[in-house]
Every structure is written in structure tokens, then in C-alpha cells.
Amino acid sequence: MIIEKDVDRILVSKSEIAKRVKELALEMDEFYQGEEVVLVCILKGAVTFFSDLVRSVSFPVQFDFMCVSSYGSGSVSTGDVQIKKDLSVDISGKNVLLVEDILDTGNTMMALIELLKERNPKDIKLCTFLNKPARREQPIEADFCGFDIPDEFVIGYGLDYDERYRQMPYIGVLKREVYE
Ligand code: IMP
Ligand code: MG
User: Fold this and answer.
1) What is the pLDDT, as a whole number, of residue 158?
2) How far apart are CA 146 and CA 129, in angstroms?
3) CA–CA separation, 66 vs 58, rounded Å?
4) How many CB atoms lie within 10 A of CB 159?
5) In this predicted model, what pLDDT tens digit does every residue of 126-137 receive, in sequence order?
6) Is the pTM value of this prediction over 0.85?
7) Cβ-based neighbour number of residue 174 at 10 Å
8) Going by fewer Cβ within 10 Å, which terminus of the chain is more open, N or C?
9) d(Cα 41, Cα 67) in Å, to the nearest integer?
């Protein structure tokens, strides 16, 4: 792949991803015990992970999609979210599981969960494929987490830099020269 020249190193390989997705699905099966769950894919970054995950869980699911972006800039983020595309199903009384690509400062997910709680779901949980604990600004942890990673900018498996690299089948560290 032409774009691979911009990758400094592979952080999570294709086979490690496949193995971990299966493990996460088993954790979820154990937790939900056959109950129906609305799986919410947070666009766009979580698309790849979402599509692997939904084919590995055994409880019944409904798919939904949401696109959000956080207001505010940089470290003074207000934590508010702007909804660019809202859910299409009514989540009141339902089990909701948000599927996110990466939990970084936590500002986006913290605000989104607060907002969705007002719609009275039975339960709301968060699954993130990647977690960067070093950069957290909010008291939020994922209920299901693929991998804890160091504070480096990563791409692939849905994650982008400036909308590029999402198609790569593994998680790679982006060369600093690409964004510096
Ligand atoms: P936060 O947790 O509110 O800071 O925002 C998390 C969002 O920032 C994710 O959904 C990603 O879109 C983006 N993000 C954070 N770190 C990275 C990274 O290393 N690579 C690509 N996107 C990232
Ligand atoms: Mg992004």
C-alpha cells in the first residue's frame, strides 16, 4: 500500500486485532446474557471495529450510527458535543452500547453519554477499541476496551489523520514528519 510509507511502526497487528475483537465479543456476551442491545457506531472512526464486532457477538443487536464533534478548542474544550448525525432509533428503555474508535481526553464521550442519558435508556455502556489513558481530562473509563496505547498519534483500522489512512488493516503510529 502506497500510504504505508507514512507509518513509523505497527502498534497493533491485524492478527492481534482479530484475536482481541473475539475476546471483547465474549466479554460482551457474558455481560448481556442474550438481552437485546442497540449497538451505536460512532462515525466515522469506529466503522471498521464496529463491523468486526457485530459479527462476533451472539446477543441480538440493533445497529445505529451517530456522528458527533466536540465544541471548544484544544485543552479548553467545553466538553459540549455537536450532533452532526443523530440516532434513528428511540433508545428509551433499551440497552445501549456505544462503540468508539479511541478514548483520548474523554471530552467527547463524557458529553455524549450525559446527553444520551436524558433519553432514558435502560443502560448505557461504552466500548472503545483504543484507550490513551495518559491524555484523559474527564473521569471516564470504557466498560469494554480493546487496547491501552501510549500517547502517540495512531492511524488505521478506521482511524484517520486528516481523513486519510482509515483503510489500513492494522493500527500504526504515524510518522511525525507527516504532521509536523
Ligand atoms: P476525545 O476523547 O474527546 O479527546 O476525542 C477522541 C477523538 O479524537 C477520537 O474519536 C478520534 O477521532 C480522535 N483521536 C484522538 N487520538 C487519536 C489518534 O491517535 N489518532 C486518530 N484520531 C485520534
Ligand atoms: Mg477522527
Assistant:
1) 98
2) 4
3) 23
4) 23
5) 999 999 999 999
6) yes
7) 20
8) C
9) 9
